[in-house]
Design brief:
This protein is mostly helical. It has a domain of 104 residues. Helices cover 68% and strands 0% of the residues. The protein contains ten helices and no strands. Helix 8 packs antiparallel against helix 9. It is globular, with a radius of gyration of 27 Å. The two termini are 47 Å apart.
């Protein structure tokens, strides 16, 4: 039984610790706020070069990576870098990927690959600043992961614009419509794979959207609730009871270990008392 419980414990760890964590719902506004703190006075418009980045890496992007982008990127990366905590650096890089996609590439991925420009901009920053906090994140993201980061970020971007958390000049009902469209597209992505954290982010969006729409009447043509991917995803039907079984097995494993240790302690002290009283009896 001990071996079986131990194997279940290992399987539980593999299932729930190896998947990539997006943290989009928790971090999107936090890192967007850093860029909103950028001041246009920081831009060196008179300079032909991108201050703060090595030309060796970014000169090939002169047609799209302007001095304004350069200044914003410098402000953002230096601010995120000052945090130095690994998970925050990780989350900061995720939003930086979306910013490059949305503002620098203008959502056009045909001419430049987002992964390539992301890596070159980071390398240019590291080479110029001599700081290596971002070194671990240059090749950290695969193209598949980046695609999902962008899908989730764009969905949340439209949701926060719809709510008014992000200042913009768009029609908020258009943002609501786009948010719902992206959500439904992401459900398909969720159904096609086994990326549980990606699906979890959809749960977060649905909960936030449904809660907001209960007290909001400004966009009557928008649905009041979003469909749950769980209704159409057979994987959830399988993984949910399996997860419960693993949790129970894990709990039993720890209970078994605790009781075993307590028994060994009891046995140890019982032997001591037995020897003590036997010795005392013989001496008397």
């Amino acid at each position: 039984m001990s071996v079986q419980l131990h194997n279940n414990f290992r399987l539980y760890i593999l299932l729930f610790s190896c998947h990539f964590q997006y943290n989009t719902a928790k971090t999107f506004l936090t890192y967007r706020t850093i860029l909103e703190g950028w001041n246009s006075c920081e831009a060196k418009s008179e300079s032909r070069h991108c201050i703060g980045f090595s030309e060796e890496y970014i000169s090939q992007y002169d047609d799209i990576f302007t001095n304004i982008h350069c200044s914003k990127a410098l402000h953002y990366l230096s601010t995120v870098e000052s945090i130095t905590e690994s998970q925050r650096l990780n989350n900061g890089c995720k939003y930086f990927l979306y910013w490059l996609y949305y503002e620098v590439l203008k959502k056009n991925l045909y001419k430049h690959k987002i992964l390539k420009i992301y890596q070159d901009v980071l390398l240019g920053y590291i080479d110029s600043s001599y700081n290596h906090y971002f070194s671990n994140y240059i090749s950290f993201f695969s193209e598949k992961t980046i695609d999902k980061i962008i899908k989730l970020s764009e969905m949340y971007d439209n949701f926060y614009k719809f709510k008014g958390d992000i200042h913009h000049t768009d029609n908020k009902c258009d943002n609501a419509k786009e948010c719902v469209r992206l959500y439904n597209e992401n459900i398909k992505v969720c159904e096609e794979g086994d990326d549980y954290d990606f699906c979890y982010e959809l749960d977060n969006l649905k909960e936030s959207y449904d809660t907001y729409m209960k007290s909001n009447e400004s966009c009557p043509n928008s649905p009041k609730t979003l469909e749950s991917y769980r209704l159409f995803n057979p994987t959830v039907v399988i993984i949910t009871p399996f997860s419960i079984l693993l949790v129970i097995s894990l709990s039993l494993f720890f209970l078994y270990k605790v009781n075993f240790i307590r028994f060994q302690i009891y046995k140890y002290y019982s032997n001591i008392y037995t020897v003590y009283f036997q010795t005392k009896f013989l001496l008397n």
